[in-house]
Design a protein that fits this description.
Elements (H helix, E strand, L loop, with lengths): L4 H5 L4 H5 L10 E2 L2 E7 L16 E5 L13 E10 L9 E8 L1 E6 L2 E6 L17 E5 L8 E10 L5 E10 L1 H13 L5 H11 L5
Antiparallel strand pairs: 1-10, 2-3, 2-4, 4-9, 5-8, 5-10, 6-7, 6-9
Length: about 200
Amino acid sequence: MKVDPLTALLAVSFSAFARDHHRSDDRLVNLRGRWRFSIGDDARRAQPGFDDSDWSTVHVPSYWEEEGYEDYNGFAGYRRTFSFDGDPNQATHLLLGQVDDVDEVFLNGTKIGNTGNPDDSDRHSGGDSYAQLRGYYFPGSLLKDDNVLAVRVHNHGGRGGIYDVPLGIISQSRYIDYWENIRRDRHWHHHGKSLLRTLLVGDDD
């Protein structure tokens, strides 16, 4: 089975993260909580000025079946607004947890990444995108005082949606720290994931 680099990020022992457990919340932006949501597909949804006032709200992370969309397979859109008043040069990585199945992500109308290709006719053939952790680099210049994150998701079957953590925007230095932890210690322990949740999840907004 193919293992992407961010899936490897979770292959970290409790001891590696315990060295830094005293640090305050490392997320510059916490993206866990209520997001706007609508089934269907429309390219205009990626634009920050798109009117999503009639969309429902769902909790992220969760499968959309748990939010009232039982047995739905196909395209859906997520949108989240957030403010940022820090140094944009420090905010360079979006962590989007895990998504079932494939996704395409836009920050203030600019595409910053995708896992799988929602537009491929064989997008789910032999793929394991649903199991991969999402991590997307973006230039800090994309950030404004008020921002819109839009995620286009396609689910082929079973449960769908942005269903797991970590969810947030972090600095490049902290992202590198994670890779240093992985380089030092790749042994996996379930407590390591628990501590990762503490560092990058925390309480809902």
